[in-house]
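User: what does the whole thing look like in 3D?
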Amino acid sequence: MRLNIGMAQMYPKLGDVRANLERHLAYVDQASAEQVDVLVFPELSLTGYQVQDLVPEVAIRASADDDVFRALLEASKRLDIVVGFVQEDSRNRFHIASAYLAGGETLHIHHKLYLPTYGMFDEGRYFAPGERVTAFNTRYGRVGLLICEDFWHVSPAYLLWLDGADVLIFHSASPSRGLDRGDRLGGSRWVELVNQAYGSMFTNYVIHCNRVGYEDGKNFWGGSSIVDPNGEFVTHGRYFEEALITASIDLNELHRTRSRLPLLRDERTPLVMRELTRIINKMESER
Amino acid sequence: MSQANTSIAERLKINTNLARTILVGFIADQIAKAGMKRAVIGLSGGLDSAVSAYLTAEALGPENLLAIRMPYKTSSPDSLNDADAVIKALGLPSMTIPITEMADPLFARFPDMSERRKGNVMARLRMTILYDQSVPWGGLVMGTSNKTELLLGYSTIYGDSGVALQPIGDLYKTQVRELAAALGVPEQIIKKPPSADLWQGQTDEGELGFTYAEVDQLLYLLVDERYTIDEVVAEGFTREFAEDVWRRVKSNHYKRTMPNIAKLSQRTIGHDFLYLRDWTT
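Assistant: Here's the predicted 3D structure for the full assembly of 568 residues, as structure tokens:
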């Protein structure tokens, strides 16, 4: 089965949810015209990244009662969309959230698990971390969804793989950093290497949508890409420039690659569980 | 170059195309977010303002960058000529506003004024002129400070540091020189010894007591690579040099931060009233 993926490598306007919603709907129009099946927006695509004290103002409830969310649900009747936003939960905790919307319904909401709070990052100051990582079913197969720092840690992607995800959708607001002599920024190189590693080691598709633009002095590098189950790039968008990047992926490639390379078949999940239990017990006893 | 190390020099080299793309985009973005199309820059004839002018002209179009030369009577004629070479090469609208007749009455009133005080007055007069001209021109004032001088505090607070944006503030001086060559900045500007040109014969390296090649490598290790003083000494820098530079970085930190506000209320600017500078609505 072939599937058309779109990645809206956009420049969200900081703190302006209404303006960003309009941009999302324009991308939906464009992607629909290009026969895209699944359209992925970047992390915090509805709000911008460094929202700081704007968090309570830009947060929305993920339900049809919210005007903005309802407009996105409505748009998802045309094609599946993955959108990034600030979610306020029923007890007023704020999460960096991503929703997979399809056919007017919310199929899945992921809360960012790892909130980088070091160096230039300060997410732990404003947000509550997610507590669950689960794959979910779509009409195109079982999918896993992670946000930026989540895939800098190997465990969430590994768990999604074991939970049945054949397509990993990652999205980011990744700031440019690490200028040296190289052909790419150090930060871009790192992300692209790990995405290629996930594709290779899980024999999965890995879709990565990263934003562009500037917030204060920080630039976001874009370069959204898709890696195939052999670890090769199917497509690689331009760095730094706003664009709708589209590519067709062939889900039958999973069959071909895994026939050749049965890493999933041979994965020893119970062994991992036994050893994890042993390691956790050891950590507990050493406390 | 007694303390310069070729392998560290290699690590300081940059992909100038990437730097140019990000910095040109940054300038265009910042000016647009201010609701403007134009900028004004003070051109000294030196490397930093030349590189900043090239980047800004690329971002906004040369017709939108007003270049102002602000010589004092002791300024080197070469500086004026080198600034003129940039103006001509880029096709910039320009003005020349000498500061001698503004500075001299103040200097005459305090005959004991040191060269350093005079230099600071000149830098602040130039800032005043740039901000004043930015109003009729309708543009932001471009900063031209590099990472080396920002870290060392080799600048005048509210003088050359009084600007709206700092495009080259994360590039060490040697990296600015590498970028200058890629941008096509005139050769004589790239090659001449860096100088604040506050008095005759002044050079940065003479005044600082070390070369940019040396200090950039040291700062790169201490700041970017998070080396300790002991670790940079193990890399071949003398302890005296490393400690002196780090003391200078520390003692000038006030120039890199906003003045402290004494906290009294539940929510205080600078403490827990946290929005980006780009927060525009």
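In plain terms: The first strand of chain A starts at residue 2 and ends at 9. Chain A touches chain B at residues 14-16, 50, 52-54, 176, 179-185, 213-217, 219, 239-240 (CB under 8 Å).
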